[in-house]
Amino acid sequence: MAYDVEISELSLKADLIEEAINFFWKHWGSESNFNFYSDCITHSLDQQNALPKFYIGTIEVIIVCSYALLTNDIISRQDLMPWFACLYVDESYRNQGIAASLLVDGLLQAKAKGYKRLYLSTDLVDFYEKNGWEQYGVGYGTSGDAFKIYSKET
C-alpha cells in the first residue's frame, strides 16, 4: 500500500511542534536527554534559513517519519556540513519508499539553502548505497565508535 506522506519543515506545522519534539526524542533520544531535543528543536523554529532544521512527514495529522538537517551530527568530522540526520520511519509505514522520499527531500532542502553536498553518518549496510550515496570516509562518535560517513551532491 502506498501512502501519501506530506513532508514539512517543522516551523510550518506549529500545531504539531510538541508532538514532533516527542517523536524525535522517542526515536533518537534517551531517558536523560529530553531537554536537549526540546531545546534544540524549539530554537530551530524561528531561524529563517539557518540550521538546524527539523522535518516531519505526516499522513493527515499523524507524524509517521522524520529527518533533520544539522550543522553537526555529534561526530568528529566537524569540518563537514550540513548533515542529514534523524531519519526515522514508523515501522508500520516502512518498505513503502518513504525513507527514500525523505532522502530526496533532504537533498532538495540542502540545495535550496545553498549547500552543494550533504553528509550523513551511519552504521547501516547497503541502505544508503542503494539510494545513490557514496562512502566519503570515517568519523568517530563521542564514545570513540567509528561510523561510516556518506555524502551526496545536492
Task: Give the SSE map.
Elements: E1 6-9, H1 17-28, H2 34-44, E2 53-59, E3 62-70, E4 83-89, H3 98-112, E5 117-122, H4 127-130, E6 134-140, E7 146-153
Task: Give an overview in words.
The protein is of the alpha+beta class and 154 residues long. It has a single domain, classed as Gcn5-related N-acetyltransferase (GNAT) (Aminopeptidase, 3-Layer(aba) Sandwich), CATH 3.40.630. The protein has four helices and seven strands; from the N terminus they run βααβββαβαββ. The chain has helices at residues 17-28, 34-44, 98-112, 127-130, and strands spanning 6-9, 53-59, 62-70, 83-89, 117-122, 134-140, 146-153. The longest helix is centred in the C-terminal third of the chain and has 15 residues, at 98-112. It is globular.
Sum up the structure in keywords.
single chain; Aminopeptidase; alpha+beta; about 150 residues; four-stranded antiparallel sheet; three-stranded antiparallel sheet; globular; 4 helices; 7 strands
